[in-house]
């Protein structure tokens, strides 16, 4: 296979300097894109939410070789393959987070909910397309429901449907497990 070399389009600016497990939903960050991409942002402010792809930094190379983890490092949950989780310990530590777009000024985006620390390289930004990205029917393992129930206190109804879409799909889709 041919080697791929990702090229960052910008970086994250916020007050977070150390990886943390929880509490990202309220974090406000700036994504400072390289000035040559300012024109590529035109029209983005018409969206409420964006997907941000970034390179997860500060992951020891030895952890990138892991093939199985307990979700959220919880021994009471089953040992599963990394691709069945949202762990940050991946062969290619690419983060994907759904964020709320708060504003744009030139080549800088202000967002809420990005689970990335200061200086994290941003690889791409894509606006949300709710009509295509949230399937009408989904299936998740039983352990996911246990995890969700304990984190939200809402029980299985916490991931409820409204207008054929999941009402609780928000925030991070990246590094909440396996830390």
> Kindly state the mean pLDDT as a whole number?
82
Q: What's the tally of helices?
A: 2
Query: Biggest β-sheet, characterized?
Result: 6 strands, antiparallel, barrel
Q: Which structural class matches the secondary elements?
A: mainly beta
Instruction: Look up the CATH topology.
Output: Elongation Factor Tu (Ef-tu), domain 3
CATH superfamily: YaeB-like
pLDDT below 50 for ≥5 consecutive residues: which ranges?
156-179
H/E element sequence: EEEEEEEEHHEE
In terms of DSSP E residues, the strand content is: 25-35%
Question: What spatial form do the alpha-carbon principal axes imply?
Answer: globular
The CATH class turns out to be: Mainly Beta
Over all CA atoms, what is the radius of gyration? Answer: 17 Å
Helix content: under 10%
Walk across the major sheet and give the strand order. 1-2-7-6-3-8
Total domain count: 1
Please give the CATH architecture: Beta Barrel
Alpha-carbon distance between the two ends: 30 Å
**DSSP, total strands:** 10
Explain the layout of strands and helices:
Elements: E1 10-13, E2 28-33, E3 49-55, E4 68-69, E5 80-81, E6 94-105, E7 108-112, E8 121-127, H1 130-133, H2 142-152, E9 161-162, E10 165-166
Antiparallel strand pairs: 1-2, 1-8, 2-7, 3-6, 3-8, 4-5, 6-7, 9-10
């Amino acid at each position: 296979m041919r080697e791929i070399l990702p090229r960052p389009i910008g970086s994250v600016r916020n007050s977070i300097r150390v990886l943390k497990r929880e509490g990202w939903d309220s974090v406000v960050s700036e994504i400072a894109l390289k000035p040559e991409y300012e024109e590529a942002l035109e029209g983005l402010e018409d969206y409420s939410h964006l997907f941000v792809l970034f390179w997860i930094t500060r992951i020891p190379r030895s952890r990138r070789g892991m093939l199985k983890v307990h979700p959220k490092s919880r021994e009471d949950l089953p040992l599963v393959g990394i691709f069945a989780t949202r762990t940050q310990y991946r062969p290619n530590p690419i983060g994907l987070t759904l964020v709320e777009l708060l504003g744009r000024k030139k080549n800088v985006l202000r967002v809420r909910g990005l689970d990335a620390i200061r200086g994290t390289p941003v690889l791409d930004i894509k606006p949300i397309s709710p009509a295509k990205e949230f399937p009408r029917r989904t299936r998740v393992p039983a352990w996911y429901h246990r995890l969700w129930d304990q984190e939200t206190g809402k029980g299985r109804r916490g991931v409820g449907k409204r207008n054929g879409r999941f009402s609780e799909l928000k925030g991070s889709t990246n590094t909440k497990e396996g830390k």
